[in-house]
């Protein structure tokens, strides 16, 4: 027979499950420290995903959470990215630019590309996340391997 202590523990566990049980996606990762200019030139790890059309600018209407229009045209030229809290910073991060690159999978060129924050994405998949326009994601690939890299859909990257 259960003691009241065991019953209490079981109830707490059940409650904890109920509270966290509505998340069905990948494991939650807390956001990293806010990125500011004092971070200097060190490369940091992030996860990259992409959205919109494979060779598009991201949002179907070429807009996004920063309120920009025509992000498929200069100055952004489809090199936009959604970022998570420590990079988007409630909009303070809009328009800031980052060098991004990847080494894995084999389609990655390892050469830096420059992207601009034009949108937000608060899915907690990594401390830092760039949900890139399809075009921007492709620019991390070796020439001709953009489509194959996009098939990976989520990769480790540095920024
Ligand atoms: C990080 O930025 C967010 C959004 O601007 C802000 O709410 C939060 O307080 C900042 N955190 C720190 C530790 O500065």
From TrEMBL:
GO cellular component, one term: extracellular region
Keywords for the protein's UniProt record, in alphabetical order: Glycoprotein, Secreted, Signal
Origin superkingdom: Eukaryota
PROSITE patterns named in the record: EXPANSIN_EG45 (PS50842)
InterPro entries (alphabetical): Expan_Lol_pI (IPR007118), Expansin/allergen_DPBB_dom (IPR007112), LolPI (IPR005795), RlpA-like_DPBB (IPR009009), RlpA-like_sf (IPR036908)
Keyword Transcription on entry: no
A Pfam family recorded for this sequence: DPBB_1
Family note: Belongs to the expansin family. Expansin B subfamily.
Protein name in UniProt: Expansin-like EG45 domain-containing protein
Originating organism: Zea mays
